[in-house]
DNA sequence: CAATGACTTACTGTTTACAATCTACAGAGA
DNA sequence: TCTCTGTAGATTGTAAACAGTAAGTCATTG
């Protein structure tokens, strides 16, 4: 028997549609398109050297993630970020991450917390480097661990469906409040310690506080109401 | 200017893919397929007189709703219901419905509660008729009202993604515990009264109790672990 | 001058055809 | 008899062609 660790990475076991989804998501969250911009299937297909099939698949996925809006016979348009979006994403995230954390805190054991500590260690060093992109990546990595250990496929799927928008928010936060990079470590360290208690209720309270803090900061951003 | 209330419902503004999704979902939740059955795109396309495009779209949607499992180059297979599925759906539903209820209870005003009371009234009459299918429909209708008034597009989307499986559970419950048809009214009436307090915390507690009760009953079903 | 209606254009929704990939089974070798 | 390998068959992934629809434009009419 060959151990799982050495199975060939299989260059691409995922379909083209999934690849295109990732590429477009990265372009959108990276700000390559203007809000409201019309994404035409044929243009995207030509640009990415694939046919319209995978493009359509990707666009429907991205619609579910809130990155684009699809209007029948009109096409896909880049969503404009509104106060409503910020509120919805944060309240929904709070709801599912509380559930995720209450389950994860009793399942992470030593190995899960070791992963968290590794991320926290990097967060500390970010304070000196101050690369906003690293801060975003580490923030997401930290929370990914919670979702990974909650052992709940459906919660994980919901998280994946809002993760991209959370990325957008984090980048916007770093752009508007560059000083936040300094407090990232302490806030996540606090959350880690709450989880380490192994008490589901304490874990939920920790998440509540954490998400609420993130929401309060973002509310200061000047966004259209809807 | 014509008020929004009277705009024509637009007979069928939805695409073929959406229609196929609904048809297949109804067939699956209605038990037309055996668990594990292999759904072949070409067969479905021939049977429904459409091409494979809309079929593919429908199958990916149904995968997201947990009704089928898609394995690359193998096709779509009807999901077998497991204890894990029951647990995941109920815990996730609890999380989002608490959020939905806490928002809805302050937004339903008179009109929302009137809708609920109309459903409750029918539930009472069901007790005499005892048509299990009506019981399922009314149960869903009741909760749909909560989601409709919570004014949260993303929560609504998550609900829609698990609503089909909840339907399956309700039907299974009615099949295994036919006597439950009698308590459906009182349980929902209790929940309605909790929402009517207009207190978000009370609303959440009401949902917690309601969902937990549903979960406890379903746990008695004899299902495979995974 | 405003409003309506036909026409044009460009896009998406759908169908059809082709290519890549996987599974299953049979046969050869140990 | 068991295992491995090669081939055949079937099914999905992908591409391209076709058809239908909505928005925009411009002429026409009240």
UniProtKB/TrEMBL annotation, chains A, B:
Gene Ontology molecular function terms on file: DNA binding; DNA-binding transcription factor activity
Keywords (A to Z) from UniProt: DNA-binding, Transcription, Transcription regulation
InterPro entries from the UniProt entry: GntR_C, TF_FadR/GntR_C, Tscrpt_reg_HTH_GntR, WH-like_DNA-bd_sf, WH_DNA-bd_sf
SMART domains, per the entry: FCD (SM00895), HTH_GNTR (SM00345)
Ranges for domain HTH gntR-type: 14-81
Stored CDD domains: WHTH_GntR (cd07377)
Domain of life: Bacteria
Official protein name in the record: GntR family transcriptional regulator
Originating organism: Kribbella rubisoli
Lineage: Bacteria, Bacillati, Actinomycetota, Actinomycetes, Propionibacteriales
